[in-house]
Amino acid sequence: MLPEVFAQRTDNTSELWLQEVTFERGHLYLIEAASGTGKSSLCAYLTGYRNDYSGTISFDQQDISGLKHAEWTSLRQHSLSHMFQELRLFPELTAWENVEIKNQLTRHKSNAEIERWFAALGIAEKRNTKLAHMSFGQQQRVALIRALCQPFDFLLADEPVSHLDQENSRIMGEIMTEEARRQGAAVIVTSIGHHMPLSYEKTYRL
Amino acid sequence: MRLIWKLLRKHVSVGQLAGFFLANLLGMLIVLLSLQFYEDVIPAFSGNDGVMKNTYIILSKRIAAVSTISGEAQTFSETDISELRRQPFARRVGAFTASQYEVYASLSMGGIGFGTDMFFESVADEFVDVQWPQRNYDDLWAQSPSATAATEIPIILPRTYLALYNFGFAQTKNLPKLSEGIVSMIAMDVRLTGEGGSVRNLKGRVVGFSTRLNTVLVPQQFMQSANAALAPHATAEPTRLIVEVENPANDAIADYMQKHGYELEDNSLEAGRATYFLKVVAALVMAIGLLISALSFYILMLSVYLLVQKNAEKLQNLLLIGYSAARVALPYQLLTVGLNALVLLLSLALLGWLRGLYLQRLWEMFPTLVEGSLVPALVLGLALFLLVSLLNIIAIRRKINNLQ
Question: Considering the domain A2-205 in this protein, what is its CATH number?
Fold first, then answer.
């Protein structure tokens, strides 16, 4: 697989582009990349909001280019969780409402569990603060909690800790892996350098 | 739903929606009012004629001094009729059959009797605006005259006769006015005298009044069997024809009549013209109303498209975190359908109010006017509401689908 914009390039040294790569449930992957190597494009392809690539992406042997809107909706509710690099939170809602809007849809987590995560990540007192009034690092933590409020086979975390300190990165990594382990799911983390201290089983360099 | 609405209500333009609301209200009101006014007023012009029915003209051959002297026929021949049938303006042509026997009708009330020579005519039932009683008269003539003396012949009189009596004659002579009901309770004696002086006494009873036909009518089937029985050697060529036309103001009709020396009974043409004019005006006003409705629909769609465009990022984010297009589209769909429903209800209420105002006036002019049904206006309003709402729902859904 290759993004169409890279089609003219001849200096491909990527361990992922133009290679056959398989991600499986239950594992922990790291994708390391320099800026502009197509990391966010990869995430967009995997979650179905872009398809400007050549090659094939398959989920369980099914080519995803043929999936319909309704099938993507179902995948995004039940199988694929994505923590976006640009977060895609709603600034006019509070931190709690941003999580609630997802959990209302999936009814996956109880309020107590969500509150526990808010506390663990140190944003409990920001619960009713409008997202627009929070720092990017705080917003990243809200985005993670939202991403966990659904059942998933794969959790795609696109630069989840770019604005977090070591301690919060560690807590975030723990929550993520614990939740993935409980569901037998895989976690795919991308990073441009500063990454979560986790025991990755496989690392790809884009 | 609450959270989604909290997100998506941003950029909802009250000004644009109010503009749509007023424009659509105006359009809808004009459409419904023109239809309702038409429904209410048309009976005043066309009597019992249904709304969508066509109008009728009655024609005869012109009586000129020359033809009176020369004895030229005043009747329509088969070729005259079939040629008329072929004309594009004529939908149906019916011939009046005149009685070939003498008719004498008399009435006796309280010892005072009066009677008069008269005539009967008949025309095919489909042209008669009053329902005849169902009966076959073939067996009448085989029986002895004494056995049939009590048989009643249904008769239809022109409504103008009754009006002439009530408002002209009775008024000046201080006689009681007669309602249609009272007239139909009176049975008169009818004596028919045929070829060779054969006489048949029957009863006659008025069963209705016609607005369309200006003659003394008996059922077509009775007329045919009576002519066959009482005047077997006479051939009855019609002297008058009734023609159903789509548009009595059509120039082709006047040209044709002129060329063939036919005459129109003025009354039917004038009433027909008035009805036609009213139809055209109502259709025109309704078309304007529909145009305004269509434009207001356009405003609404533009407003919603703008809204979707402005909120595109939010809508896309909702789709990306797993919301379905149907669920994301729902708030805007509800918003537009709600507005449409509000427009429908308000325009119906306004319609009722305005109708009350003009009905008051109409009753002053036509005291006997029977108000039209509200059903067509209700059905039309509901149909417009459903159509516009459906188009809104589909358009919004497609717009949202395009974001994925």
Answer: 3.40.50.300
